[in-house]
Design brief:
Keywords: Glycoprotein, Signal. Pfam families: GILT. Belongs to the GILT family. GO terms for molecular function: oxidoreductase activity, acting on a sulfur group of donors, disulfide as acceptor. The protein has one domain: Glutaredoxin. It has about 230 residues and is α+β, with helices and mostly antiparallel strands. The longest helix has 22 residues, at about 5-30. Helix content is about 50%, strand content about 10%. A hairpin with a 6-residue loop joins strand 3 and strand 4. The chain has a four-stranded mixed β-sheet with strand order 2-1-5-6, with helices on both faces. Helix 2 runs antiparallel to helix 5 (about 120-135) and helix 5 crosses helix 6 (about 145-155).
Length: about 230
């Protein structure tokens, strides 16, 4: 036989149930690699908020950031966080994701998110994303929409099934929505893309991001590139 429950008891049970549901949802979404876990030590946190078909984002990734990631002496001192969302938004009525440069950009943003999830090593997923960005505009109308990223997988000897599984299962969309929420929480809010944040501080002159890496690095052995940069305050 049951026992009568007071209003306080019912409220308590509702709160416990809601908390359990929230815990289950949060535990089912993978955490971001490198960024939140790599807070100890002298490495510098470098975050890039961008969108896949923005020419300025593509230019920064393929012309500037690539030099840092592909230089071991620099890559060793940074925790790189890529956030492929940019100026996208969620339609309040349909809940669909709308991207600044159309549906194709939404698709590629999701492929980027799946790559970050599939290959947590920052150099591996960056090289894949950089490869896509280098081809995104020149192959805009050629072949299926899978052509670019599958070509990059082949070029880098990466398993295409990981991306396909992530995208087709809906996980990529979940990851994108989390990236959107993270972008919305930026303080101050991003004003443009690419939006570069170093150790929590946004920098407007993002092409000079290496100066900020050198400024914030407090480890015993700075990259050799830092010896050529004149120290300045931010």
């Amino acid at each position: 036989m049951g026992f009568p429950m007071s209003g306080t008891t019912v409220l308590y049970l509702i709160l416990i149930s809601a908390e359990s549901i929230l815990t289950h949802v949060e535990s089912s979404v993978p955490t971001a690699p490198n960024w939140v876990r790599a807070t100890a030590g002298p490495k510098v946190n470098l975050a890039l908020y961008y969108e896949s078909l923005c020419p300025y984002s593509a230019g920064f990734i393929t012309n500037d950031l690539v030099k840092a990631v592909q230089t071991p002496d620099i890559e060793r001192v940074i925790n790189l966080r890529l956030v492929p969302w940019g100026n996208a938004r969620v339609n309040r009525s349909t809940k669909a994701v709308l991207c600044q440069h159309g549906e194709r950009e939404c698709y590629l943003n999701t492929i980027h998110a799946c790559a970050i999830q599939s290959w947590p090593d920052q150099k591996t997923h960056f090289e894949f994303i950089s490869c896509i960005e280098a081809k995104a505009f020149e192959e805009y109308d050629s072949g299926s929409r899978e052509t670019i990223w599958k070509t990059c997988c082949k070029q880098l000897e990466l398993d295409t099934s990981l991306i396909s599984k992530c995208y087709n299962s809906g996980l990529g969309t979940k990851l994108e929505l989390h990236y959107g929420a993270e972008t919305d929480r930026l303080s101050p809010p991003h004003k443009f893309v690419p939006w570069v944040v170093v150790n929590g501080q946004p920098i407007s002159d993002y092409p000079n991001f290496m100066r900020y890496i050198c400024l914030y690095y407090k480890g015993p052995t700075p990259p050799k590139a830092c010896l050529k940069i004149t120290p300045q305050s931010t």
